[in-house]
Amino acid sequence: MNALVPSPIVSFNQVGKTFEVAGGELEAIREFNLEIAEGEFVAIVGSSGCGKSTLLRLLIGLDTQFRGEIRVDGKAVNGIGGERGIVFQEHRLFPWLTVEENIGLGLVNEALSASERQTRIADFIELVGLTDFTRAYPHQLSGGMAQRVAIARGLVASPRILLLDEPFGALDALTRQQMQDELLAIRERARITTVLVTHDVEEAIFLADRVVVMEPRPGRIKRVVDIALPHPRQRSSFDFHQLREELLHELTSDDHYQVPLPAQIRDLPLAFIAC
Fold first, then answer.
1. Of 46, 122, 139, 184, which one has the greatest count of Cβ atoms within 10 A?
2. Superfamily in which the 40-68+77-266 domain is placed by CATH
3. pLDDT the model gives residue 21
4. Residue 260: what pLDDT?
5. How far apart are CA 10 and CA 217, in angstroms?
6. CB 266 within 8 A of CB 28
7. What's the confidence (pLDDT) of residue 6?
């Protein structure tokens, strides 16, 4: 299935990925085609093992061994690039560094003077609402605050695309909803193209312009749904509920829904990148 948009900033063309596992091969992704417009917010949802996080690894450039082609702003992806930032489910902050020092890790490849660097860090600390916690350490922060630091680190180098891999999955329900609201506000100020991977259908509907529904074994697009609800979106509204039921039906009608991911793939190490 193709999902095409005019002048895409991101394009996947016939992308496939196969892992070597004990006893043979596992095809994780097959013939994935998707285009994402600049400034768009796209959420990818699906059961465990459908290849959602693998797609982000390919797009960020952590894994360059795949079939097909991925392009960002017309250029083929063949490694990590400064135009792409990522935030993982775990905040991955260094415990011995302060908030400003952790955010500063996102600038390690930027040619900035000391004053420019400090100004950039301060701007993004303010953006995520942590000005009073500049010199705090991770253990002094709540889970939501730590994840805001991770988002600031992902944005501080001014990437054109922000990738979010289950960024609020480790948070409690109330904090998760608060962070979803904050993410929309941050994204509006930063005006950045965003790709979110999530298991949470409500989160996808609340945040995204489009939702890509994946089916597994191998991972491929089942359906792309436009979310035409105006912001701010109300989770209790009839239209929101209808979309939720529609997407849940797409997921639960899959015979593979909630099949656990093979251990050989689930346990693959995910490299830390300070971006």
1. 46
2. P-loop containing nucleotide triphosphate hydrolases (3.40.50.300)
3. 85
4. 39
5. 24
6. no
7. 65
